[in-house]
Amino acid sequence: MGIDLSIIWFTIIVFATLMYIIMDGFDLGIGILFPFNKDPVERDMMVNTVAPVWDGNETWLILGGAALFGAFPLAYAVITTALAAPLTIMLIGLIFRGVAFEFRFKATEEHRPFWDKAFIGGSFVATFSQGVVLGAVINGFEVTNRTYSGPALAWLTPFTLFCGVGLVLAYALLGSTWLIMKTENELHRKMTALTKPLLLALLVVIAIVSVWTPLLHENIMHRWFSLPNLFWFLPVPVLVLAAAWGLLSALKRHAHYTPFLLTLALVFLGFTGLGISIWPNIIPPSITIWDAASPPQSQGFMLVGGLLIIPVILVYTFWSYYVFRGKIKPDEGYH
Question: Which parts of the chain sit beneath pLDDT 70?
Fold first, then answer.
């Protein structure tokens, strides 16, 4: 039996997407949390926790997009056509976030509030747009003769907007637990106090989406609740509850690292639930990864480059986070 290059590339895209969600998630989450902390010194500390690594986090977004274009061109064409508006808005938000991130350090005290607002706005817009895209992917796309045939605003539904709100909460939780891990004293206490309501709100959103999705899509209902699938997939919601309980317990004992690790577990479990719902479709509800795949020769040629570049990205990502490990202080940086 030969190697299934479509599964390999789908795995690479899933991995790159998950890495992006995790790494740029807490980065965008810091911008989302800015309105909850008006102290300028603490705001500088919040930004400084990701200043050395934030721009490298988006490497995974580029990798995922390039891999989708080369390995599954039909999926790339349909998704970029159907979701042109939210994807464009997302990119504009990321640009504003990036520019504000750099300019706020160089701005005078008079102009810094403007760049803080741009940082907040860019973070909110980019995150909300990503959530809308996620909801639209779950809803699926109308495809006729390998071309998107749905309306231009098919992505704009109550479900997709709710998913946008949910991702804002998820990234805010990633940001707050990241700051718990990277800061001390008053900022650490503020983030610890903020994390509990964020977690509870996110659990409510997860519960609503978990009920809403199968009600909208009969195939997803059958996937999750038919036997024996129910028993195979039951560990996912059980582990979500276990991770949430562990996170609440970690907050009570004022843990530093455990909250962030358990938030990563929640994100991974949510991503797993999405994968269970749509597999093996890359364009829900009916176009599989094999239907959308490029020729094996193209996938094989790309894989040679992927196997060379992905380890390099992993090494420099690990090294940058290792170099800037530890807590940060307003007057000393990392220690």
Answer: 1-2, 331-335
